[in-house]
Write a structure and sequence with these properties.
It comes from Nocardiopsis suaedae. Residues 1-22 form the signal peptide. By secondary structure, this protein is mainly beta. The chain has a single domain (3-117), classed as Gamma-B Crystallin, domain 1 (Sandwich), CATH 2.60.20. Helices cover 12% and strands 41% of the residues. Strands 1-4-9-6-7 form a five-stranded mixed sheet. A four-stranded antiparallel sheet has the order 3-2-5-8. The protein starts with a strand and ends with a strand.
């Protein structure tokens, strides 16, 4: 079963789970919490942080914010993040290795779904 991510709900949940303050720079400077995967609207971890979820899935990037708008990724988990350019994990796009940060995706603004796995 795919989990649809409504971007507003993810951001609200993240804010509830870990308040953004001066003492939590990981939420403010383009880094993701341990065990999570985060994705931003713009290159170099700028713009809206559309995705901030615990590695798992599969996840469809749902709604109008985030869907086909991902430009940079921080995989702070021990798993590979397998990216797809269609919903329902179809149309293989590429992989992000465990603990890899990609400041500018090679296929910008194309991702629509992803899943965390122990292989790519």
């Amino acid at each position: 079963m795919h989990t649809a991510i409504r971007v507003g709900a993810v951001l609200a949940a993240a804010a509830t789970a870990l308040p953004v303050t001066a003492s939590t720079p990981a939420m403010a400077d383009g880094y993701c919490r341990a065990g999570h995967v985060c994705m931003w609207e713009d290159a170099h971890y700028q713009g809206s942080r559309y995705i901030d979820v615990r590695a798992g899935g599969p996840y469809d990037i749902d709604w109008w914010n985030g869907d086909n708008e991902i430009s940079s990724v921080d995989n702070a988990s021990d798993l590979y993040i397998v990216m797809y350019d269609n919903d329902n994990t179809t149309g293989f796009l590429g992989c992000v290795a465990p603990h890899q940060r990609i400041p500018s995706l090679w296929r910008n603004d194309e991702m629509e779904s992803f899943i965390a796995r122990d292989f790519c």
